[in-house]
Amino acid sequence: MQRLSQPVEKRDFSLLRSWLQSSKKVIPLRKHSFLFQEGMPANELYLILSGKVQVSKICPDGKEMCFRICGSGEIVGELTLFTNDARYLLTAKVIEPGEAAVMKKNELEDQLLINPTLTLEYMRWMSKHARRTQTKFRDLMMNGKKGALYSTLIRLCNSYGVSLGDGSIFIDLTLRNQDLANFCGTTRESVNRMLNALKQEGIISMRRGKITVHDLNYLKTEIQCEDCPPDICCIE
Fold first, then answer.
1. In whole angstroms, what is the distance from residue 186 CA to residue 178 CA?
2. Could you say which of 137, 165, 189 is where a domain stops?
3. Same domain, yes or no, for 121 and 27?
């Protein structure tokens, strides 16, 4: 079996990640705990060393909208730099235990002001992050609930997919239907119906909370996929 996600992505922005990793403060990530919650004062950034963190927003009606799942090497809390009285815009919840390096926001701001190489790398990283976010909103707005689910499955394949050798892709991440609904901005009942339809057509199969996609091209064709690079079309 061969993992589809690209190892090059983890080597990108190595200077920024190395600087964050140099922090002397490392904290444990305990499952179901929060790195931060929406509205809290934003004084720190986090580099995930191990484990997984889900970044989401709680809507006024109580629904949770999940934006990304961050694993090893990913940075969380970055949207608060150079902002007076900064508050976290999103909520970061631990879904798989591990560790994170912690850096004070003002320390990174000071470094960006004096280190042009680090500043350029940070700008490149933010640009890629913005492109990822824009493509997710495009899929949600233009393709409806079905398109949102199909694009989420495609992104999961790019981020956590393992090729089984017969054209099928095993998504090596345990997901509840409610988790998928949070990514799609819809209800669990709607996701249940759409997943059952895909299973009946042989497009996917599910076992113990993990999904295998048997016909990725079907999903891409249904949403007129633009074949964005995997490092943009991803769930991270």
1. 9
2. 137
3. yes
Alpha-carbon span 194 to 97, nearest angstrom: 31
For 207-235, what is each residue's pLDDT tens digit?
A: 888 999 999 999 999 888 888 888 788 88
44 and 102 in contact (C-beta within 8 Å)? yes
Q: Would you state the pLDDT for residue 8?
A: 38
Tokens encoding 184: 């799609």
Q: Identify any residues that bridge with 98 across adjacent strands, giving them in sequence order.
A: 29
**Parallel, antiparallel, or unpaired for β 210-213 and 204-207?**
antiparallel
Average pLDDT for residues 31-51, to the nearest whole number? 92
Mean pLDDT within 151-179: 90
Selected residue with higher pLDDT from 115 and 77: 115
CA distances from 209 to 112, 114, 121, 201 (A): 42, 48, 37, 19
**What CATH number does residue 219 fall under?**
1.10.10.10
Q: 101, 121, 137 — which closes off a domain? A: 137
Residue 213 confidence (pLDDT): 96
Can you read off the two tokens belonging to residue 198? 């895909």
Q: Which residue has the tokens 């909208």?
A: 65
Which domain, by its residues, includes 157?
Answer: 142-232
Beta-bridged to residue 91, according to DSSP, are 56
Count other Cβ atoms within 10 Å, centred on residue 78.
17
Q: Which two tokens stand for residue 158?
A: 């790019």
Q: Is the pLDDT of residue 31 over 70?
A: yes
Are 96 and 207 part of one and the same domain? no
